[in-house]
Structures are given as C-alpha cells and as structure tokens.
Amino acid sequence: MVFAGMNYAAVFAAAVAGFLFGGVYYGVLSNAWLAAIGKSKEDIEKTGMAVPLIVTAISLLLMAWVLAGIIGHLGAGQVTLKSGVISGFMCWLGFVATTISTNHAYQGARGSLTVIDTGYWLGVLLIEGAVIGWMGVK
Fold first, then answer.
1. CB-neighbour burial class of residue 124 (10 A; exposed 0-12, middle 13-18, buried 19+)
2. Higher-confidence position of 129 and 72
3. Nearest to residue 61, comparing CAs of 131, 5, 116?
4. If we measure between CA atoms, which residue out of 2, 27, 11 comes closest to residue 116?
5. pTM of the model as a whole
C-alpha cells in the first residue's frame, strides 16, 4: 500500500534508530528508571524482556509509519529534516506527553517516571522525524 508517497526504507530506518536510542537512553537511566518503577534488576530478570522488546519494536515501526504519513501530508517539497523534527515534536507534545502524563497521574506514578518516559518518547519522535524528513518521500 502506498500512502502519501511513503518511503518504507525511511520508516524502517526511523524505527531502528528509535529502538537503538531506547537501548542507550534506558541503559544510561536504568537505575533511575528502576527506582521510579519501584523494581530491582532481579525483578526485571524474573519477568524477562522479550515481550516488552517485541512490543516496542512493533510500536516503533507503527509510530514511524504514522509519522511518515503525517509528514508526507505536508506536501511536495515540504518533507525535510526540519519539518520532520518539528512534526515529531508536535506529535510528542500533543499526543504522547499528554497521554503519558495523564495515565501516570491516574496510576499514581512517580514524577520521575513521567519525566524519564516522556523524555524517551520525545527522543524517539525527534529521531524518527529527522530520519523520515532527511530520507524524504518516494
């Protein structure tokens, strides 16, 4: 299916870049993240990471595909690195940061978890938007 001149190589590259970013981001913030969720490394090892990593990969691919569709709708000649980053930021601000903040408020999550998680998704959307904008549409 062709949607808004979508560049599927850009979608895939954006998802991979977002996934790699997550590894670095949560690797650096692993202790803070564990404290924010109230778990230990041993707790995480017991439940495993296979399912969350698969869900993450699928989610990042879907997110990149939707973001590429949004960016593609800017029109001919408007798909650029700058427009990709701006689009990624606007999607994060309007949809992701608001959703996570609302859910965490109802769940009684620590503020530090909200900052860590929204920061991750900001990085992902900026990176995905940059990759998609840089690689352009077909």
1. buried
2. 129
3. 131
4. 27
5. 0.93
